[in-house]
Amino acid sequence: MSSVERDVDVVIDDVDNRAVATVVERREYELDELFQDDELRLWEDDAGWNGFIREEQADGTVAYYSVNTRHDEDSWVRKVRCGKEAVRNGIQKHIADPKAGEAGEFRRRCSPP
Predict the structure, then answer these.
(1) What is the mean pLDDT of each run of 10 residues along the chain (113 residues)?
(2) Cα 96–100–104 angle (5° rounding)?
(3) Do the Cβ atoms of 22 and 8 come closer than 8 Å?
(4) Beta strand pairing status for 62-70 and 48-56?
């Protein structure tokens, strides 16, 4: 689900009989089921993927890891523990990336690790 807010400013030039409208849109997206099977794949191609995983700890807390893997490997190429802020920043950077995909598509193609 998403919503859009628009701020519109109009300046009228009565001498030249014209107007200039500036429209600024703010969109809000709700990303439900962000982690699927405890994985958040931001970039993926036929060779592998990278993004984040979440693991529930024995004490009930959640740990996040920045990961990179190949589909034909049994272990992570890279698995580094990070905080929720790193996940937030990764999502923010991904959404801002014009090459990240169209609406309804969160992943994009990536170079092999």
Answers:
(1) 85 96 88 89 87 95 95 90 95 81 49 40
(2) 100
(3) yes
(4) antiparallel
